TrEMBL record:
This is DUF3857 domain-containing protein. Transmembrane segments: none annotated. Residues 97-261 form the DUF3857 domain. Keywords: Signal. Residues 1-27 form the signal peptide. SMART domains: TPR (SM00028). SUPFAM superfamilies: Cysteine proteinases, TPR-like. Residues 318-400 form the Transglutaminase-like domain. Pfam families: DUF3857, Transglut_core. It comes from the Bacteria.
Length: 964
């Protein structure tokens, strides 16, 4: 457990210390209120031991606190029973910050984390005093502070990887012999104040802990009554001012919070909500007071020097040599120098947490942190006759800083505001952004919310450019298909602006080239997995702008187009750069507010280009369209344009909000549900060009006339449909616009229609050509199996049925084909076994009826009369057709009764009659009545329903047994 000025490990104390998230994830123990203040001085501590800390009793002014046994906490491996933080502001300096904590270990899962205590402090102005460290076990106290070896003093520099050193020390304790049920109690004080605050008191105390739920939080401030120390707390969270008294020249203020839920770091929680757990203290009267303080700090770093003058002169000479000695060019060169030639590194020990280094120091060491760079840039620009001033900002809290108490602790970063001569609009420029490039106007800092200009006379926070005004990216994506039948190409050209360009430059400089390439194509590869990258991504600087252009090329692959209805090609598309910023995290609806990433403007143009007429030319006014959605969070505008050989969508997304308020999650999600289908959809292209489509309509009319005149013979309405589908398939194949797999689908369609017309030889050719284009298509293998059966090639039928089932095991059609092939090929045991399995696994009543009929026939041919009669009827209380056929088989209905059942609404059904007579013939064959079988087979063929399987089977059987 850490004690420090805040849970953030100086995250809001030192400028440029931006790792708030890491600090928030640590467990903290804030303080607690106490009785009356004791104005007496605290007792002297023992001399600091070699370990770097001392041990002494708690100061006399501390008001002892204990856990509240009436508070019930939820179960957790560690429960924090008490967080007690008491501060005494001494009139003579040397502020005491006393912390006292009690935690309970309730489960073995809490032993590791619960055993660790750490105290961070800055030895340049603070000293550490331990008061107690003990374990309570079964009512007995075990003093751990006596063992000095338990306390390790570490110099860890946790921010070193972020190019910062602060000199802070960590007193680390790892308790030994800790057991479930133990209660740990410890107390320590930090004595001293950072001199950078000119003797004014500032602090921030957290009232929750990540270690576990907290029973009682007590925060007490004891200060001279003459000192105006303001405080701010969130009463809505249950933080209450429990006591405020003034006595004997001292003011005591106590805050309490009870039954506090365990803190869990949520990266999606807006900063204002995250910081609500804090109690803030500040002796600064207002923002004017803070601005005057900051101005004094930066003034100390602003003294003119020969080195600074020499650097300014070098910049001026460089601008003159380029023939562009303008304020804008001098500003650009100065910004380049500070951002690139002065590397980022911070030394933030003691007062240096906020005090900028002098220009001479920074120029000599050639490094500095945010405040050093801001001061150098401002002073350099003054030498170049350009108005500039430092600005304090919060890179974490951003706009939420305006709700904070006026204090230096409200800020964690420093930039500069610059006004070029002859302009009224200031530029907000950041000297730490070393990946920037281009004109100063394109390097604007967006989305920092409110900032405080470090200048005397400034009385309020300044509003800086909001993130919603930033242009983030603009993309032109083009899908080109010179011929629909061939693979197309996809080209994406994106210009990334501002922060996105800087992130990309940083990635280019730090990532292996292969990993960078994967990152650049990641979204496209996820959207279109079949696309294959062609060549490497091309990354180019955009002249004069803080922007990068990235060009990517892909092949679409042969299977970009789907062909779901065998009439139109369908290609999926996604407006990627518009949909990505709108993505929601994978979680259930939130009850808390949620931070939205990446506010700003995104432009995306998607264009389809064809080398042949793909669409009918739009009529006047019909070639354009639009979609608009504007709400509290975003505005989406889509514009559509259509031509004979192109389709285009121009999209603009303005993500205007940076957070979704609590309770608004569902409303926001509903808005996304409305627009997302617009951002990911499909383009439909006719399989026939407009002229070819007109020719097809004419051919269809001619076919209809031929059928009416009788020159084209049809027996059933289905045969009319078959001839229509065959004609359409022929025209689609002749058009030669289809890619391989859609062409295979049409060839399969053609083969099926030829089979239905009783032309299996033509069907075989179509299926075989389709298989060459799509060899692993289960439907084609299944169709070729049925075709082989019609051609009386039973072994071939079984082979293709096996292949179809290997590709699509759940398809019942090939299984029946295999049954029929084995039946006619006299492989009766195999047919029987498969039929029994189908009847056990198939839920469809109709299939159970047909399966039962065939099981009856197979059983009869095997001589299993009992098995034939044992075939079970469908389970339906009123079985539909062909149940009457099974009844006929088993002698429970005569032929006339079956014929009546075959009719529907007293109308003849040729298809059913074809089936009935075929199966009656099979029963007659089983009864060894050839004459009756021949008669029934002729009646089956007389129906003329060539599209039925039973028709071709009847023809086959009649040829086998002979006509007489």
């Amino acid at each position: 457990m850490t004690i420090t000025a805040s849970r953030t490990q100086r995250g809001l104390l030192a400028l440029c210390s931006l790792s708030l998230a890491a600090g928030l994830a640590m467990a903290q123990v804030p303080a607690k209120p106490a009785p009356k203040p004791a104005p007496a001085k605290a007792p002297a501590t023992k001399a600091a031991a070699p370990e770097g800390y001392s041990v002494a009793p708690a100061p006399a002014w501390v008001a002892p606190q204990s856990p509240d046994p009436s508070i019930t906490l939820p179960a957790a491996p560690v429960q924090v029973l008490l967080m007690d933080h008491q501060t005494r502001v001494d009139p003579a300096g040397g502020t005491w910050r006393y912390q006292h904590a009690v935690r309970q270990i309730t489960d073995s899962a809490g032993l590791q984390q619960g055993s660790q205590i750490q105290v961070d402090f800055d030895p340049s102005y603070q000293r550490l005093v331990f008061h107690r460290l003990e374990i309570w076990r079964e009512g007995k106290r075990i003093d751990k502070l006596a063992d000095r070896k338990l306390v390790k003093l570490l110099h860890r520099e946790p921010n070193l990887e972020r190019q910062m050193v602060d000199g802070r020390m960590t007193a680390s304790v790892v308790l030994d012999d800790l057991r479930v049920g133990d209660r740990i109690e410890w107390a320590a004080s930090l004595v001293g104040d950072n001199p950078v605050f000119d003797g004014k008191f500032v602090d921030q105390e957290w009232t929750s802990a990540s270690l576990g739920p907290v029973g009682l939080v007590n925060v007490r401030l004891l200060a001279p009554a003459a000192r105006e120390i303001r405080h701010r707390e969130r009463t809505a969270l249950g933080i209450e001012v429990a006591q405020q008294t003034t006595k004997d020249g001292w003011r005591e203020t106590t805050f309490r919070r009870r039954a506090v839920a365990q803190f869990h770091y949520d990266p999606l929680l807006p900063p204002g909500e995250m910081l609500a757990d804090q109690i803030e203290f500040s002796e600064f009267a207002d923002w004017a007071d803070v601005a005057a303080w900051a101005q004094r700090l930066f003034a100390k770093a602003g003294a003119s020097s020969d080195a600074l003058a020499a650097q300014a002169e070098a910049i001026r000479a460089k601008a003159q040599a380029a023939g562009r000695d303008t304020p804008e060019e001098r500003l650009r060169l100065a910004l380049d120098f500070v951002q690139r030639d002065i590397r980022y590194f911070g030394t933030e020990m003691g007062a240096n947490s906020h005090q900028p280094a002098t220009a001479d120091t920074v120029l000599k060491q050639r490094f500095g942190d945010c405040k050093d760079k801001a001061a150098l840039l401002v002073n350099l620009l003054k030498q170049l006759d350009i108005e500039a001033a430092p600005v304090l900002v919060s890179a974490y809290a951003r706009d939420a800083v305006q709700a904070r108490l006026p204090s230096p602790l409200a800020f964690d970063h420093a930039i500069a505001t610059v006004t070029l001569p002859g302009t009224d609009t200031p530029l907000w420029l950041d000297g730490t952004r070393g990946q920037q490039s281009g004109a100063p106007q394109t390097r604007q800092s967006y989305g920092l919310g409110r900032g405080l200009i470090a200048r005397s006379g400034v009385t309020a926070l300044s509003t800086m450019p909001p993130a919603r005004e930033a242009l983030r990216s603009e993309t032109t994506a083009t899908l080109r298909f010179p011929r629909l039948a061939e693979e197309g190409s996809f080209e994406s050209v994106t210009v990334y602006h501002g922060e996105m360009a800087e992130w990309l430059r940083a990635a280019r400089d730090s990532m292996p080239a292969e990993e960078l390439q994967k990152a650049l194509i990641g979204e496209i590869s996820r959207a279109w997995p079949s696309f294959s990258q062609q060549g490497q991504a091309l990354i180019e600087e955009v002249d004069g702008s803080n922007a990068l252009k990235v060009s990517l090329r892909f092949g679409t692959g042969a299977n970009y187009w789907r062909f779901p209805d065998k009439r139109t090609l369908v290609g999926d598309f996604i407006l990627l750069d518009l949909i990505v910023p709108l993505r929601l995290p994978n979680q259930t609806p939130r009850t808390e507010a949620m931070q939205i990433g990446g506010p700003g403007r995104y432009l995306y143009k998607l264009r389809f280009e064809f080398g042949e007429d793909a669409f009918a030319p739009p009529s006047a006014g019909n070639g354009t369209g639009r979609f608009d959605e504007t709400n509290d969070w975003f505005a989406l505008h889509l514009r559509y344009a259509s031509a004979a050989r192109s389709q285009q969508v121009d999209g603009e997304l303005a993500l205007n909000a940076d957070e979704i308020a609590a309770g608004k999650w569902s409303a926001y999600r509903d808005k996304l549900t409305k627009v997302l289908p617009r951002l990911g959809s499909a383009l439909t292209v006719p399989a026939l060009a407009p002229a070819q489509l007109a020719g097809l309509r004419k051919s269809l009319d001619e076919l209809g006339d031929s059928i009416k005149r009788g020159t084209v013979k049809v027996t059933t309405a289905e045969q009319v449909s078959v001839r229509t589908r065959l004609l359409i398939a022929d025209r689609e194949l002749e058009a030669n616009r289809l890619p391989p797999k859609p062409r295979a689908q049409v060839l399969q369609e053609r083969g099926v229609q030829l089979d239905l017309l009783g032309l299996p030889d033509g069907g075989k050719l179509a299926f075989e050509e389709a298989l060459k284009l799509d060899p692993d298509n289960a439907e084609i293998h299944g169709a070729l199996a049925a075709n082989a059966l019609m051609r009386r090639q039973d072994a071939e039928a079984v082979e293709h049925a096996d292949r179809a089932l290997a590709l699509a095991p759940s398809d019942t059609g090939p299984r029946y084909t295999r049954v029929w092939a084995n039946y006619f090929g006299n492989q009766l045991p195999a047919a029987r076994d498969e039929l029994k399995d189908i009847l056990q696994t198939s839920p469809a009543e109709v299939e159970r009826s047909y399966g039962g009929i065939w099981l009856y026939l197979v059983s009869r041919r095997l001589g299993d009369e009992a098995g034939a009669q044992a075939v079970q009827p469908p389970s339906d209380s009123q079985p539909a057709w062909p149940y009457a056929v099974l009844q006929l088989m088993q002698g429970r209905l005569d032929l006339d009764g079956a014929l009546v059942a075959a009719r529907e609404d007293a109308k003849a059904r040729p298809g059913r009659e074809c089936e009935l007579y075929f199966y009656a013939a099979q029963k007659a064959l089983a009864d060894q009545d050839l004459a009756k079988a021949r008669g029934y087979l002729r009646k089956s063929l007389d129906t003329g329903v060539v599209e039925f399987n039973e028709y071709s089977m009847a023809k086959r059987e009649l040829e086998r047994i002979g006509t007489r």
